[in-house]
Amino acid sequence: MFDNFVVPDLLPAAPELFLAAMALAILMIDLLVKDSRRTVTFVLTQLTLVGCALIQFSTSTGEITYTFSNMFVDDLMSDLLKLFLYMTVFVVMSYSRGYIIDRPVMNKGEYYVLALFATLGMMVMISANHFLTVYLGLELLSLSLYAMVAMNRESAVSTEAAMKYFVLGALASGLLLYGMSMIYGATGTLEITAVGERLLGGGVNGTVLVFGLVFLVAGLAFKLGVVPFHMWIPDVYHGAPTSVTLLIGSAPKLAAFAIVMRLLVNGLITQAQDWQGMLIILSVLSMAIGNLAAIAQTNLKRMLAYSAISHMGFMLLGITTGVVSGDARYALNAYSSSMFYVIAYVLMSTASFGVILLMSRAGFEAENLDDFKGLNKRSPWFAGIMLMVMFSMAGVPFFIGFFAKFSVLQAVVAAGYYWLAIVAVLFSLIGAFYYLRVVKLMYFDAPVDETPISAGMDMRFLISVNGLAVAALGIFPQIIMSLCAYALLRSL
Amino acid sequence: MSTYPLLSFAIWIPIVAGFSVLATGSDRNAPLARILALFGAIASFLVTIPLWSGFDIANGGMQFVELKSWIPRFNINYHLGVDGISMLFVVLNAFITVIVVAAGWEVVKSKVAQYNAAFLIMSGLMNGIFSSLDGVLFYVFFEASLIPLYLIIGVWGGPNRVYAAFKFFLYTLFGSLLLLLSLMYLFINSGGSFSILEWHKMPIALGPQIWLFLAFLVAFAVKVPMWPVHTWLPDAHVEAPTGGSIVLAAIALKLGAYGFVRFSLPILPDASHELSGLVLAMSLIAVVYIGFVALVQEDMKKLVAYSSIAHMGFVTLGFFMFSPLAVEGALVQMVSHGFVAGAMFFCIGVMYDRVHSRQIADYGGVVNTMPKFAALFMLFSMANAGLPATSGFVGEFMVILAATKFNFWVAFAAATSLIIGAAYTLWMYKRVIFGDVANHHVEELTDINKREFAILGVLAVCTLAMGLYPQPFTEVMHASVTDLLRHIAISKIQ
Fold it and tell me: ipTM of the assembly?
């Protein structure tokens, strides 16, 4: 009866297995921990992430390895993205700690466990080589996040945000699944690399395929949060507790980038002409609506939500320029520039939400733009950090955001889409306005609130490192740029 | 030739000094911040002196070259070097930074450390612009220098500072973004090089040349600023603190003009010839029309700001006549304008610190209470009007002389500026300085103190020295200008 059962090679999935085991263990251990000793859970969570990183390092072979009947893939791209993922979640958890301690309703073990499960979901997404694996990872991520958004039970806004997130997220998953089933209908396989091979072989029903592709792209657009599938982003970013917003606004972008790469590039590269056209529309709309709507916001979280939309639009530009009239010469350049953009964005996004968390305290959310008035008087150091992050997001050198924009734009210019490059820089110009406004509030205006910043030393230290990294990686962007290029070279 | 990386010193010493000034923290340590800033500015100036003294005037190429790989992924290099054109601006910039730190000495009382740090960092970044030989390196410095100036205007500026700071930033960012795309186009079409010197040699067809030229024109015209994209400058000047106005006039305006010399002319010679009429027309409008606009200003800073635009019109006029005399005249005009406009803004700052008004109508008879100041202000006004024996005359005269050879009507229009310039400057001078004591503010004025006298004295010496004996300035640029004109003369269309 068990003759046919082959134990799959577990090594490529070792970090996932470790994380899953640890998440379950922490769930149990936390039952024995009193509310006042929650540090134990926190430390275990962080150790788990460090452990994952170590395992990732030691098991990485640099080769493309498939396992679980080709449902799961481990390559350099996934290794690199996962390492950044652990780092991001580690930082996010550290930033959140002070915030949730001040809000006892959230300071539960579940907070950490859900974050770990969300991380697991993202890892599965990054390594997916099968439509079902993609879906599995996505749902694990989404369900954990829905619960986390709703965790602050006393807040009506959070509950509303969670409902919206859930309903729209479920719709998006439905679209994605529908698209996948169409593609399955056309190609007869759910395995992403096999889909690619079938399409290359020809004889596939084009109508069904393109139909499926449209739904697939719509589903992905939902998850990335690009226009016109962006409706949930501002409400969820705004309504969720800031520490959860930080999580939603950072790490999942890495995973979303990965599934875009897996589904569209690994699986459907033969249809590049079709989906690139769709992505260009999504991207231009996102840059337009994201940047324009951000100007009107008075709530910083909402402003950053619209900024996230525009950034994801900009990132997509890189992916749209991989194949130029059937010629894939520029593919590596284009995709690695997008990957660099995502990583840079995650770094900036954690820093910006981190500063909001830093300024919040028990019973006070520093989420309105006016709360940042005169920050330079209250704390010149953190005003300086926020200044760097804002200029970086606006794409001004010497910060990493400039080189992120730079690498994507050069890919667009290399592909010959001059008009697209001009559109992109014009919307960046509009975007610069609202980032400048944050700087204006911090530096040109007098403070309304003179309360000193109460965050702990560890938080202050980490956020300083995060902010300085935005500057340091702007002066030396080569390291991450070439890592991205190398990882993709070995994975595509 | 020195073996030290002098250009790196010129860039990074002020930046490091700026950050150490920043580290002195709150205004309790203001005296320390001031001393440290002055020390940093002087040190940065001293390292630029060997650039001039060790400069080989027979060599038209790049000197003091430093080349290190920066971002190999895109073949971007940390490539520095100066020729006879850019060297002068590095020295001028370092010099003006000392003046600016001294100018804000007792006047700036809030956030002293941040104020001085912003100027020092900006000085380093601008040295970077003048000495970059890599397109991306140039761009990075070019755009990063917006940040300190944005903060200077916004934090220490006048009542309408927020509007002025935003307008300044967004206007110039718009120009730079088009520049960025042009750099990428050149990168891709040169087979993957960001080296400006490579671009000087690469062939480009006329069509792309025209587009690139227009993109460059927008980027640099905004910076210069040329009519009709000049409107940010009067706002920025009026709202900026005195130090900000000095840097803006003396150095920041030169960046755009420098961009024409380094990028537009040698990289796109055919388009430059093709579209020179457009640029000449824009320049002449700046010279004549903006001169008339300056005439009717009631705010002294606005008046000098408009006169700056008119003077910069001479610079672009000179560049696009493609003769050695005109280009050298334009460059001399740039350096001279650095001294004169810097001094004019400082003079206005001196009066503003005492009376807190920039309106011409609020003054009158200042000579009665501030005789020493009136004498020096007279010198700079004369220089601004282009009086012979001052530096203001040399550049304008050379450009007008070249213009007479080029086209009579161009020369005629340019020469009217000597009349208009004299009219607006001297009329302002007359209303502010001469006449009866206008009101009790003027009556209570105290004459300039030793610090102010020293600053104005040094600038006066520079203005006169350059006016009487301009050769040290022209001889260093001669070989490089010849080289530049050779590039412009060769068509790149294949």
Answer: 0.90
